[in-house]
Amino acid sequence: MSTQLAQALAGDYQFCHLLEISFDWGKIYMTDADEDISYNGSIYLAGMFKRFSSVKHSSGIRIGDLRLDFNALDPAVVALGLGEKWMNRRIDLTKLVVTDGPVGRLPLYQGLISKMNTDSAGSLSFTVSSIWADFEKSAGRQSNTVSHQKFFPSTDPFEHTPFLNDSIPWGKEGNGTVRSKSATPTDETPASGDTLPRP
Questions:
Q1: Pick from 108, 109, 112, 114: which is nearest to 131 by CA?
Q2: Which of 93, 148, 121, 105 is nearest to 9 (CA)?
Q3: Which of these, 19, 41, 161, 192, has the minimum number of CB atoms within 10 Å of its CB?
Q4: pLDDT digits (tens, 9 = 90+) for 11-26
Q5: In angstroms, rounded to a whole number, what is the distance separating the alpha carbons of residues 37 and 3?
Q6: What confidence tens digit (pLDDT) does each residue in 35-58 have?
Q7: What is the distance between the alpha carbons of residues 196 and 187, in angstroms, rounded to a whole number?
Q8: 8 phi and psi angles, rounded to 5 deg
Q9: Contact partners, residue 133, CB within 8 Å, separation at least 6
Q10: Do the Cβ atoms of 68 and 52 come closer than 8 Å?
Q11: Which residues partner with 104 through β-bridges?
Q12: 52: buried, middle or exposed (CB in 10 Å: 19+, 13-18, 0-12)?
């Protein structure tokens, strides 16, 4: 923390919040102040970013969510929510300290956007999860339709499931005993309890 910022925090000061959302093509800069803020070579636009949920600081590693509310009546906000690939985009939320002018800022939250919601009151919100949330995610593909269609969107992974014969063995090699109660014995498949001949 700079000496100037420490002196400002010890006296009378005003503040607002600065929000940055990072995309592949660049960043969007917003503020909850009443007017646009020029700081550190960037213009933070007012009127789009409304408020955010409370921020709790902890000395340990924890996964917490933050809700950011926007004015969905602004066409730029609608374009942000519906026209951009916002999932897992990084946000940086800081507190800007102001006396006669901007003095410095304090970091409040960093995270990745994980969810979007809209409501009839003209509000659009993003849920932002801390960067530690990625460590809780299950790695790799899963055996469900959603996971499959991320890679093959036009196919149904369980299309032929109703036609499967449940007597087909799978998994690690067993002792040759047929354990399925619904399987119909055939010449090749001994009755339940019998064992298949070993080669």
A1: 112
A2: 105
A3: 41
A4: 888 899 999 999 888 9
A5: 22
A6: 999 999 999 999 999 888 876 655
A7: 11
A8: -65, -40
A9: 63, 111, 112, 114
A10: yes
A11: 97
A12: buried
